[in-house]
């Protein structure tokens, strides 16, 4: 079993006006074998948490710690985080013209495994993963994320998850909302990942919709830069019916 531990994490986003504190003491422990959902209103700092974990240069850690099996994640480079078994979707570039998916994924796998997979084995591995995920074969020859639809970006993310086979995955489901196709890709992919056994998932989401397809072991409500309440899957049902008002004191505009 592996454990990802976030302790009293404070962090800021770096803007032109200076550092703006967003994370205000995040505490969260995830054991492998579990899916944890973080839910919270827009602007509460959910994506900031994901970027901070990914080591994004626009975000700064002010205090606190992140430990993966006791190892200090915040001291690690982005590649070291990946090698340690942490998958952070946004550590990968958004669009890479001229680099095929197949080459891009091989580079990512090389970073994680510490050596380049043999080309012949790699081609087979990618083919199998793509067919398991119902991705058409032409996908591997396309440039990374170039002209990808929302659903295709999600397929790419889930394909990475499958091939890189981390211990922990942090997935930030953007607030813009996934279409039905993308929702199915993500939920099937996450469930399949979990079924490999001993995998931890931190699923960040604004809407309860995806939790109809993925049953979380724990649900955390995020408000104003920290976890303000934790519970079981039933907490998501409560959020579905009453929204975040009980936790924030503010009524949210209907989405
Ligand atoms: P969420 O994902 O919960 O919607 P975010 O982490 O995206 O929240 O944003 C948290 C807060 O940080 C918001 O008030 C947002 O305006 C601010 N913020 C995030 N990124 C930036 C940025 N690059 N520049 C300025 N403010 C930012
Ligand atoms: Mg947002
Ligand atoms: Mg967000």
UniProtKB/TrEMBL annotation:
Domain ABC transporter: start-end pairs: 4-249
UniProt keyword terms in alphabetical order: ATP-binding, Nucleotide-binding
InterPro entries for this protein: AAA+_ATPase (IPR003593), ABC_transporter-like_ATP-bd (IPR003439), FeS-cluster_ATPase_SufC (IPR010230), P-loop_NTPase (IPR027417)
PROSITE patterns: ABC_TRANSPORTER_2 (PS50893)
UniProt keyword annotation of Kinase present: no
SMART domains, per database record: AAA
One Pfam family it belongs to: ABC_tran
Keyword flag ATP-binding: yes
Family: Belongs to the ABC transporter superfamily. Ycf16 family.
Record PANTHER family: ABC TRANSPORTER I FAMILY MEMBER 6, CHLOROPLASTIC
Protein name: Fe-S cluster assembly ATPase SufC
Organism per entry: Saccharopolyspora halophila
Gene coding for it: sufC
